[in-house]
Amino acid sequence: MSLHDCRLIDLPRITDVRGNLSFIEGGRHVPFDIKRVYYLYDVPGGETRAGHAHRALQQFVIAASGSFEVILDDGSNRRTQALNRSFFGLYICPGIWREMVNFSSGAVCLVLASEYYDEADYIRDYEAFRAYARRRE
Ligand code: TYD
């Protein structure tokens, strides 16, 4: 459960003069079975999304259109990952604080998730997250 476990994953690309196609199969291209899909869109310029961690949820985040940045924080280290093409995505393991910033106009953030929505899985307070990360070490 550290930043090293969060990684970019390249997706299959079927290139075609009619337009390209990529696909994702649960358990194959992402390391979990996909239970839920959601997407963020119409994000006003300058807005921040997320700003929380998950205890158990695994996610795979794709810039289906446009671009944005994901700030990842494991309680000790922080890094920023830019997502700007729809043929790769970012795997986020459990226990990582994340914020999503710098959405371009028209950006669509597509998220594949390993679990159904469960508010009890969220840690929404940063200091509570830091304490959780310290206990985990
Ligand atoms: P939240 O996960 O806090 O948004 P983000 O992290 O993308 O900024 O969710 C915002 C609201 O939407 C919150 O009230 C819970 C609700 N929600 C669902 O009902 N189902 C879902 O699958 C998700 C992701 C959120």
Structural class: mainly beta
CATH class: Mainly Beta
Strand content: 35-45%
According to DSSP, the number of beta strands is 12
Percentage of residues in helical conformation: under 10%
Main sheet overview: 5 strands, antiparallel
Q: Quote the average pLDDT.
A: 97
Q: What is the 3D form?
A: globular
Bound molecules: thymidine-5'-diphosphate
Q: Within the CATH hierarchy, at the fold level, what is the topology?
A: Jelly Rolls
Distance between the termini: 10 Å
Q: Treating each run of at least 4 consecutive H or I residues as one helix, how many helices?
A: 1
Side-by-side strand order of the widest sheet:
1-9-6-11-4
**Rg result:** 15 Å
Number of domains: 1
The assigned CATH architecture is Sandwich
CATH homologous superfamily placement:
Jelly Rolls
Description:
The strands form three sheets. A five-stranded antiparallel sheet has the order 1-9-6-11-4, with no helix packed on it. A five-stranded antiparallel sheet has the order 8-7-10-5-12. The protein has a two-stranded antiparallel ribbon with strand order 2-3. It contains one helix and twelve strands. The chain is mainly beta and 137 residues long. β7 and β8 (78-83) form a beta hairpin. It has one helix spanning 126-136, and strands at 7-10, 13-14, 21-22, 36-40, 49-54, 59-65, 68-73, 78-83, 88-92, 97-101, 108-113, 122-123. The chain binds thymidine-5'-diphosphate. Thymidine-5'-diphosphate (TYD) binds at residues 36, 38, 40, 49-50, 52, 117.
